[in-house]
Write a structure and sequence with these properties.
Blueprint (H helix, E strand, L loop, with lengths): L1 H14 L1 E7 L2 E6 L3 E6 L3 E2 L8 E7 L2 E6 L2 H4 L11 E7 L2 E7 L1 E7 L2 E3 L12 E7 L2 E6 L1 H17 L22
């Protein structure tokens, strides 16, 4: 019984934590419980005619993962700059996928500020809100919205329809209007 309580307590503590990472000049976070692993970027093979937000498909230990590039969704300030890029592998009920990032900065508790106006279940939202970490404002990503973008982009490609998403989203100065569609 004691180990069950201990595990539940550890899960509760982890659920309050976010994985904070850098992508270009911008810092982002997402719930730490959504992150399966962080690893060195494998070779990523582009998918012809796909939306630019799909960097391609990566092979990680015999598992093929769609890799999302945040730059086409967020703007040039999210352009990858590190020589050694990393993958943030996300686990969800429909399968694993990844985000191309420069570097994980921390796994830490942050206080997020969620604007109800940003949460529209019918839109492919990529931003959930904002937070502060180490004196800097960071953007809190919507893991489910990013996963829907990855899935929809692949499905559109496989079914031969055009990309469903615009090439860029407003900059962080108009973050309250961030929607991929």
């Amino acid at each position: 019984m004691e180990s069950v309580i201990s595990n539940q307590s550890r899960i509760a503590n982890l659920s309050d934590k976010h994985c904070i990472f850098r992508c270009g000049d911008v810092m982002f976070s997402l719930p730490a419980t959504a992150v399966r692993e962080v690893t060195i970027m494998p070779t990523v093979v582009p998918v012809p005619l796909s939306h630019p937000s799909l960097a391609g498909i990566g092979n990680l230990r015999s598992e093929f993962l769609p890799v999302i590039d945040l730059e086409p969704l967020i703007g040039n300030q999210a352009r990858l700059v590190a020589d050694t890029k990393q993958l943030l592998v996300i686990q969800c009920p429909l399968g694993s996928w990844a985000i191309a990032i420069d570097k994980v900065v921390a796994i830490d508790g942050i206080e997020t500020h969620i604007d109800a106006g940003w949460r529209n279940e019918n839109a492919m939202s990529v931003l959930m809100g904002t937070a502060t970490y180490d004196g800097k404002v960071i953007s809190v990503l919507d893991v489910n919205g990013l996963q829907r973008i990855a899935q929809q982009t692949l499905e559109d490609q496989w079914h031969g329809s055009g990309p469903a998403f615009p090439s860029t989203v407003p900059t962080t100065s108009s973050a309250s209007k961030w929607n991929a569609v």
